[in-house]
Write a structure and sequence with these properties.
- The chain is 66% helix and 0% strand.
- With 416 residues, it is mostly helical.
- Helix 9 runs antiparallel to helix 10 and helix 10 runs parallel beside helix 12.
- The protein is globular and about 70 Å long.
- The chain starts with 13 loop residues before the first helix and ends with a helix.
Length: 416
């Protein structure tokens, strides 16, 4: 019942990052380098300001500079839990795995009621058993916090703040149980008890958070590994119904890795149109997400093959409703093979450019993209004009373009 591990989400859109930078420019400008004759008590910005700036830099994915702010905090407040955890996150993003691990281990050794360091340690574990142990520790802490919250409420529903905290705790518990399930779906997939463990863990997750899309989508993956495709479709329906069609940024929309997992299941189920609908939303949110571009091209390619097979077998094009966001063809007819493959060519060409520009760590993706492009070339499907801008690619590879931040100099001064 082996399954593929979920990949880490990619970067965010440039426009979104630029907007965040503009929104914080005024606040950043107000923070200046301390004067040489300042007193010890005012020789640096307050910790709250440094933490705020670190959060802003994390949102902009400037992990290097954020880590310097956080390290500065820890020089004056070594016990600052938030700063140490965020510094661990920065080290993780920068590839400093051992440094990150040490920060999280320090936190769990000094604080008995923190669950998040255990969740990070579960992802950094050297064995599946160690990963499961960290997840279990996180779940125990979260369950105690949830129990205390529920028992302490003055009314059955609690006030608005209590409802928000309770929902978040339930989602965190469910997420940790899903993480444990994925260990059994990957590293422990050959364990004879893996199917039973997966069912028990996800049953518990859904009892804690019945509408958690991540749990439903993970259950769909389990059902696929058990060759229970009809049950998998039922899980997908329950996991997608609450957020399908929502505007970008809606809190009901799950994280990008969860949506990519759903896309892969839809492709396995040969639900190409629905996969493309989902992928178009992902690419609208993050136009530089390599895997989304790859999966969209792969979905169009497979759909084109299916259309050709159906036409050959039935002598006519099959008709079915087209999901929202899939706009090729006319009326309710499935697009023709050529239309599908032209769309595939566009997405795969973009994927190839992004893969090169980002030096993406998945050579197998690039190899498959090039294999598919060669097949499209052989079929006479040529790239449309303007899909790939080589000047933009050169700029990205050279570190140019609109990634610069006019506030970087001020940030550098502030952290000195």
């Amino acid at each position: 019942m082996a399954r593929t591990k979920r990949t880490k989400p990619g970067g965010r859109q440039r426009a979104e990052i630029a907007a965040e930078k503009q929104a914080t420019a005024a606040a950043t400008a107000a923070l200046s380098t301390p004067s040489s004759n300042a007193s010890a008590s005012t020789s640096q910005p307050p910790v709250e300001e440094l933490l705020g700036k670190a959060h802003t830099l994390l949102a902009q994915q400037d992990y290097e500079l954020a880590s310097r702010f956080l390290a500065r905090i820890l020089t004056t407040e070594p016990s600052n839990i938030e700063a140490r955890e965020l510094l661990g996150v920065c080290d993780l993003e920068l590839g400093n795995v051992e440094e990150a691990r040490n920060h999280f281990l320090h936190l769990v050794s000094t604080s008995s009621d923190l669950s998040s360091p255990y969740l990070y340690l579960a992802q950094l574990a050297s064995s599946p058993q160690e990963s499961l142990a960290h997840y279990e520790s996180a779940v125990r802490i979260l369950e105690v916090q949830l129990k205390e919250l529920v028992e302490g409420k003055e009314t059955e529903e609690g006030d608005e703040d209590e409802q928000v905290v309770e929902k978040d705790l339930r989602k965190q518990i469910s997420g940790a149980l899903v993480g444990m399930t994925e260990v059994y779906l990957t590293d422990l997939c050959f364990d004879p008890l893996a199917p039973e463990k997966c069912d028990l863990l996800l049953s518990k997750a859904l009892s804690v958070s019945p509408q958690d899309p991540e749990a439903w989508i993970c259950l769909a993956s389990v059902r696929m590994s058990q060759s229970r495709e009809i049950d998998a479709l039922s899980c997908i329906e329950k996991g997608w119904q609450d957020w399908r069609g929502k505007e970008l940024g809606d809190p009901l929309i799950p994280a990008l890795p969860t949506r990519l997992s759903l896309t892969r299941i839809l492709l396995e189920l040969q639900k190409y149109a629905f996969a493309i609908e989902l992928l178009r939303g992902i690419r609208e949110e993050d136009e530089e997400e390599v895997e989304a571009a790859y999966l969209e091209g792969w979905a169009w390619f497979l759909w084109g093959e299916e259309v050709a097979l159906l036409a050959s077998a039935e002598g006519t094009e099959k008709k079915e409703p087209r999901p929202a966001g899939v706009d090729v063809g006319e009326g309710d007819e499935v697009p023709e093979k050529k239309e599908c493959w032209e769309e595939a060519r566009e997405s795969l060409s973009v994927c190839e450019v992004l893969h090169r520009a980002q030096n993406h760590p998945s050579p197998e993706v690039l190899a498959h993209v090039r294999e598919l492009l060669a097949q499209l070339d052989a079929a006479g499907i040529r790239p449309a004009q303007g899909i790939v801008d080589e000047e933009d690619l050169d700029g990205m590879e050279d570190g140019e373009g609109d990634w610069g931040d006019d506030d970087d100099d001020e940030d550098e001064e502030m952290v000195e």
